[in-house]
Design a protein that fits this description.
This protein is of the alpha/beta class. α2 crosses α5 and α3 crosses α4. Strands 1, 2, 3, 4, 5, 6, 7 and 8 form an eight-stranded mixed sheet that branches. It has five helices and eight strands; from the N terminus they run αββαββαβαβββα.
Length: about 220
């Protein structure tokens, strides 16, 4: 798996950072990523932010190397072009959270979501809540030739750490733009998440490289 050492054209990156979503961010010119707090007591704590540093190493994108905790129902969400959402167990979003999420994605925001260690309850809840928020029946599986698999790193498989076979990525598009990528298997990269483990299920073994590609793709498309 080799990196293409993608260099984002500065003019393109400047245009992206000037987008209304990023206006008012704490560090102008630096891509910041939101770590969502949602539902009653749910947080995305066990998701490694190491891929943010990897993006900066492999591309010309300048990132804040730590997530910013952001409540899904807060207006602060619209300051961030990219957000992650993960967890374990069942949950329900509030009406305000559903509305905020739908508005965020319609205004140019991008969501990376993952069932922590392939947690089945969280997977069912996420699909249910996404349907309620966005009015979609099914997420679309991304095929191997999708550019997200080659944006920075060339990714030829989605190997699992606890079973044979491969995982897959799913997505949702709005007006021809992919606004959400979801993995029913863990993308948490718990090896780089202190205090977290993946003892309850599968995790994608190359999750760091996948997350790098997803962030770069989100900024370019």
């Amino acid at each position: 798996m080799k990196s293409s050492h993608l260099k984002i054209p500065l003019i393109l990156l400047s245009l992206f950072l000037a987008f209304p979503l990023a206006v008012g961010s704490a560090k102008e010119g630096i891509v910041q990523c939101a770590n969502l707090i949602y539902g009653p007591g749910k947080t995305s704590t066990c998701f490694s932010d190491e891929f943010l540093s990897a993006v900066q190493r492999e591309t010309s994108i300048v990132t804040d190397r730590r997530f910013k905790p952001v409540k899904l129902d807060s207006e602060d969400l619209f300051r961030y072009p990219f957000a992650i959402m993960t967890g374990e167990g069942d949950f329900s979003l509030t009406p305000k959270e559903r509305t905020n999420l739908a508005t965020y994605l319609s205004r140019g925001g991008f969501l990376l979501a993952s069932a922590g260690c392939s947690n089945a309850e969280w997977d069912r809840a996420f699909r249910r809540e996404i349907k309620a928020a966005l009015g979609v029946d099914d997420l679309e599986q991304l095929t191997a030739d999708h550019p997200v698999f080659s944006t920075v790193f060339q990714i030829d498989d989605l190997g699992l750490n606890k079973s044979e076979g491969n995982g897959h990525l799913e997505g949702i598009s709005r007006e021809g733009r992919l606004v959400l990528i979801y993995s029913a298997d863990g993308l948490n990269n718990t090896a780089n998440a202190p205090g977290c483990c993946c003892c309850g299920g599968n995790e994608l073994t190359n999750s760091l490289q996948i997350n790098v590609n997803i962030l770069a793709y989100a900024l370019l498309h």
